């Protein structure tokens, strides 16, 4: 078993650290945020993730994981240091690599024995070379430090499961020593390991995420056409899915992809291409379709209602997908301001995302409209003139058409996630609009 340090305790770093401890390694998670470190020491996860706190507790009491702000002591005698800090999007679409560069320098100034630095954060092709250069420039002790790429493929909401049961581990290395060490670290996971060079590993991450984003945008594009020609996108997707070359996953049309990854990684790869004098037309198309898709339902509803002024608008779901409290690039963030500008009185329900949303749109009067956060769906629907579904939470899926009909003043539903049957809604007397299906 190895001594592992992990820099950054976001989705990537913390989940990786906890899972390394779970398979028996000795792990120290490093974060600059004292409060976060205190929180984790008391067993509380700073992120909402199924099963994570339980694993944190088990491994903490077993003495396999600790949390600290003291990077020097964590890095000095580690066999491997995994970097999982953020690479936020900059206004021009490029990735901000300053957090990675800072960690690289701290590593160089701290290590006292040979060690492998492993970049888990999503980084532009060639970044690992730069990280290695920074480490060589600032290295204090005469020790061997190499850099490997090991991109992460977990999805929020199922992060622990995705890590422990990953479909593949990608390792990008430039030496046999690095390849063997990283392979041994992952041995206890018993997962398929794909070993390539560093630049290919970096590219695999972007190419995978952008392919999935493309798949979603393609289905959204086709969905919009389905509406115009009278086809049903769900039947179309079902028919397509029998072709194993296409597969059945990520064919769900809806209100566009959100989250911290697809929007950022599509723009980043487009930027990387541009930097290299190449235009990545397919990825650009995925970005463009997604932008339009986010407000598709709002535009439809606007045409139907003319104005939202003074209307009670139920909003069900605020997060970018279920199973997370993350709002980044969520459809709600595009639509709520439009509704408020129009003078809507919004009643918003989300089982875990409301608190974060209220930080951006505080409860009460908001511009011409207002927003009220409710703890139960019925409260949002009672007397509502129109309802928008932005996130397919289980409890939202469970609402019956009869409930909409009974509770709403006007049973008019705009569903961005295609979670109800068109005929069921019609039979119950609900006017139902969704994506790529008959109105
Ligand atoms: C995504 C990838 O799925 C992970 O493999 C990757 O590791 C991660 O990004 C990352 O780079 O860190 P995540 O952003 O957590 O994971 O969420 P997804 O479940 O992929 O969903 C992304 C968005 O696509 C959501 O808004 C979701 O509603 C939307 N989506 C997904 C669709 O609109 N249709 C689909 O069929 C699937």
Automatic annotation (TrEMBL):
InterPro entries: 6-PGluconate_DH-like_C_sf, NAD(P)-bd_dom_sf, UDP-Glc/GDP-Man, UDP-Glc/GDP-Man_DH_C, UDP-Glc/GDP-Man_DH_C_sf, UDP-Glc/GDP-Man_DH_dimer, UDP-Glc/GDP-Man_DH_N, UDPglc_DH_bac. SUPFAM superfamilies: 6-phosphogluconate dehydrogenase C-terminal domain-like, NAD(P)-binding Rossmann-fold domains, UDP-glucose/GDP-mannose dehydrogenase C-terminal domain. Gene3D superfamilies: Cytochrome c1, transmembrane anchor, C-terminal, NAD(P)-binding Rossmann-like Domain. NAD(+) binds at residues 31, 36, 87, 122, 264, 328. NCBIfam families: NDP-sugDHase (TIGR03026). Its EC number is 1.1.1.22. Substrate binds at residues 205, 250-254, 258, 321. It comes from Oceanobacillus halophilus. Pathway: Nucleotide-sugar biosynthesis; UDP-alpha-D-glucuronate biosynthesis; UDP-alpha-D-glucuronate from UDP-alpha-D-glucose: step 1/1. Residues 314-422 form the UDP-glucose/GDP-mannose dehydrogenase C-terminal domain. The active site is at 261 (nucleophile). Keywords: NAD, Oxidoreductase. It is an enzyme of class 1 (oxidoreductase). GO terms for biological process: polysaccharide biosynthetic process; UDP-glucuronate biosynthetic process. GO terms for molecular function: NAD binding; UDP-glucose 6-dehydrogenase activity. This is UDP-glucose 6-dehydrogenase. Belongs to the UDP-glucose/GDP-mannose dehydrogenase family.
């Amino acid at each position: 078993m190895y001594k592992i340090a992990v820099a950054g305790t976001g989705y990537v770093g913390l989940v990786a650290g906890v899972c390394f401890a779970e398979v028996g390694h000795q792990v120290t998670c490093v974060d600059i945020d004292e409060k976060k470190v205190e929180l984790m020491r008391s067993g509380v996860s700073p992120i909402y993730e199924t099963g994570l706190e339980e694993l944190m507790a088990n491994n903490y009491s077993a003495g396999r994981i600790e949390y600290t702000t003291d990077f020097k002591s964590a890095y000095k005698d580690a066999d491997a240091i995994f970097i999982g800090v953020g690479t936020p999007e900059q206004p021009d679409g490029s990735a901000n690599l300053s957090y990675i560069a800072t960690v690289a320098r701290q590593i160089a100034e701290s290590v006292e024995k040979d060690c492998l630095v492993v970049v888990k954060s999503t980084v532009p092709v060639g970044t690992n070379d730069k990280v290695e250069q920074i480490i060589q420039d600032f290295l204090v002790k005469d020790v061997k430090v190499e850099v490997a790429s090991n991109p992460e493929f977990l999805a929020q909401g199922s992060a622990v499961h995705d890590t422990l049961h990953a479909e593949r581990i990608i390792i990008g290395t430039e030496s046999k020593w690095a390849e063997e060490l990283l392979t041994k670290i992952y041995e206890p996971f018993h997962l398929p390991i794909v070993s390539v060079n560093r630049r290919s590993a970096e590219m695999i991450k972007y190419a995978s995420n952008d392919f999935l984003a493309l798949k979603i945008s393609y289905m959204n594009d086709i969905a919009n056409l389905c509406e115009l020609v009278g086809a049903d996108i769900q039947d179309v997707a079902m028919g397509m899915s029998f072709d194993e070359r296409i597969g059945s996953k990520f064919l769900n049309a809806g209100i566009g992809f959100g989250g911290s990854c697809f929007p950022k990684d599509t723009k980043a790869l487009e930027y990387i291409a541009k930097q290299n004098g190449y235009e990545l037309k397919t990825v650009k198309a995925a970005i463009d379709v997604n932008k339009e898709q986010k407000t598709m339902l709002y535009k439809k509803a606007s045409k139907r209602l003319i104005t939202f002024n003074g209307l009670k608008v139920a909003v069900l779901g605020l997060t970018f997908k279920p199973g997370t409290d993350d709002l980044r690039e969520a459809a709600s963030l595009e639509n709520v301001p439009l509704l408020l500008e129009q003078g809507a009185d919004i009643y918003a329900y989300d089982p875990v995302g409301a608190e974060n949303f209220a930080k951006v749109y505080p409860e009460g009067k908001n511009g011409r409209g207002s927003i009220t956060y409710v703890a139960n769906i019925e409260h949002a629907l009672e007397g509502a003139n129109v309802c928008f579904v932005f996130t397919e939470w289980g409890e939202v899926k469970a609402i019956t058409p009869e409930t909409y009909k009974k509770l709403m003043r006007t049973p008019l539903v705009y569903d961005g996630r295609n979670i109800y049957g068109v005929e069921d809604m019609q039979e119950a007397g609900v006017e139902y609009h969704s994506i790529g299906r008959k109105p």
